[in-house]
Each structure stands twice: as structure tokens, then as C-alpha cells.
Specification:
CATH topology of the largest domain: Rossmann fold
Structural class: alpha/beta
Shape: elongated
Distance between the termini: 43 Å
Strand order of the largest sheet: 1-2-10-7-8-9
CATH class of the largest domain: Alpha Beta
Length: 406
Amino acid sequence: MASDAPGIADIRAAADRIAGAVVRTPTLLSRTLSDLTGANVWLKFENLQFTAAYKERGALNKLLLLDEATRRRGVIAASAGNHSQAVAYHGRRLGVPVTIVMPKPTPTMKVVQTEGHGATVVLHGELFDEAYAKAREMEGELGLTFVHPFDDPAVIAGQGTVALEMLDDAPNIDTLVVPIGGGGLISGMAAAAKAVKPDIAVVGAQAELYPSMYAHIEGREMPSSGDTIAEGIAVKRPGDLTRQMVADLVDEILLVPERAIETAVSLLVQIEKTVAEGAGATGLAALLTHPERFRGRNVGLVVTGGNIDTRLLATVLLRDLARSGRMARLRVQLHDRPGALFSVVRLFEQQQVNIVEVYHQRVFTNLPAKDAFIDIECEARDKAHLDTLVAALGEAGFNVHPVEIH
């Protein structure tokens, strides 16, 4: 273990230091997710923090450990969103001037919320690594203190308090599944959990598009790029300290595809009535992707944050409805003559399938001039209900094809 790696004493001290200034979020058993996955699933709702993410813990612990002169000069941080809000919020509480450098694609909601906490926001670069480099440059130019989002012993110790609370509330948990970006959360949680319960398994969950920690641990060269819904863990290079701690303390890292993360976001809304950003749902996505790994285990998941753009959330939910067969777009070919559209719509009414939108196309098609096609977006009870409608359309002589999403 690295000499500067925080231990259980540091994490317990952090818990005392931040007590009362962060929310002691609940850890609750999800009966429905347990039935769905075959594991006993406990959820830690860190999306209920004031800034809607666990990052407050590490940020506050770091700020409280700074001397008064350092606080007066101010701090700077680089973040895709949640760390920035945490530093800004607690910086304002403590009277510390805060500057945040964020990647340009950061969701607008996170930028606005960070500015709302009184921070000065600088948008730079496309990914965290570029924003990070700019922040380190400004640190020297302006004489500020850099608050690292994950590769800092004080930050890691603060994040480790999540595990202390989980095991205090649900001591039968035998497996923790934790999202990995830079590695700060899983490093702190693993250090705390292994000290309290040495035989506990700690499993990392990382987005397939950004497998940086997985690649390091496995000794492989793997690209980290692309648009992921889990932008909070889209880190190309994990921390130096966190890499050592993960290598020493984490039992396994699992990669999860984008579709599983989308499904997990949707399930948390539908089942738990809670909003999770992509990174916050990655732990559940790992259970959905690798159910055999966790079947029969008492699994603790951290819903790490809930700061998802509302438009993106709407898209994810609608895509999930389409994949499950509850919403569909059907393309129907028909003769372009009076009554043709009515004859199609009548079948929808007979099958009690709700029509949401109709798109009628006569010109931009390679069909004969007397033909047209219509795209009908519709809502059904489930896939079987939709299949019944498609069969009825076919029996009535219509050429119909579902417009698939992937």
C-alpha cells in the first residue's frame, strides 16, 4: 500500500469532521431489484446529498484540512460536474473563493448549478484531462490550491465514509459494487470496508467506453473515448494513488456497456422512483450485465449521483420503453387514396393501442407514386400487445415494419 494512502483512522476522522455538514443518506433494501437480479440488493442513496452526489464528502474533508491562509487565497478544481458543485457549495459555506474548470460538453445543468453555488466557472477542453491540465496551469498562475477530484488522500478519506455508513446500516452486506472513474470513491470505500469487514468483496464497475482503471489493472492497452451517458466517470487516466489502492484492495473490475447503463437509469426511476445519472447507475448496470457474479450475494450499490440533464433522462426513458415493446414506431405502406389512413387507424383502435404521432410521407420515398408510407409512434401495454397489433395489420393486407432502435 502507498505510504500516503488513507487508512481506517483517516476515514473515521473524516466522518467525524464532516458530520452534520453532509447528509447521512439512507441504505435501503430493494426487494424488486433483488428479485430481478437474484441478489439481495441494498442501495445507498448518495443522490440525496444537497448537491445530489457523494462528492461533497471528499471535497469538504479536503477544505476543512486547509489552513486559514490557504482558504483565503482560494482553491481551484477540475471536474465534469459533481466534484465542482461539491467544492463550490462547501467553499461558499466556509468562505473559500472557488474557481472550477469544466470540460465544454459538461451538461448545462451541472454548469448552472456550479455557478449557482458562487463559483467562477471556466469551460475548457472536451474531456476531463484537458480541463485538468488547464486547472493545474491556473493553479500556478493565480496562487490557488488545487482540490483534486479523486487523487488526494483527504478526498479519498472523505469518500470512504460512504462505506462506513453502509456497513453500519446493513452489516450483512458481503459485496460492494462501486462505479470507477478516477478511482477516488472505490479506493476510499475499499479501504474502509476491508478494515471493518476483511472478507468483504469490493467490485468496481466501469463504463466500457472508458476502461482506464480496468486496463491498468489488467496490464492491457485499451482506448478510452466516445460519448458515454456516464460522463461523470469518463476519465482517460485514473489517479496515481488510486491506481495503487485499487490494485491492493479491489477484488475485480467489471466493464458495462452503454445500453446496460441506460437500462439501469430507467429501472431506478421506475422501481425506486429515484433519479440517477449514468455514473450513478453503473453499479446496478454491472449487476444486470453480470448476474451470475452476484447471484445469492448481499450486494451494496451506491447511487453516486443524480445530476442528469432532464432532456437526456427523457431520451433514456423513452428508449427503454421502445426496447421493452411498450413504445414503438411502425412503418406502414398504403395506397395514397381517401380512407387509407382511416383503415389503418381503425386497427389501432380495435387493438386498443394508443397513437402518439403520425408522419405521412408521399415525396421522399422510392415507393410508386400512388403509394405512400406512414410512420406511427404508438404506446402498447407490452411487446405481446404490440405483436398482436402488427399481426392484425398484416392480416388486413398492410406491409408493416417496426422501426428498430439499438
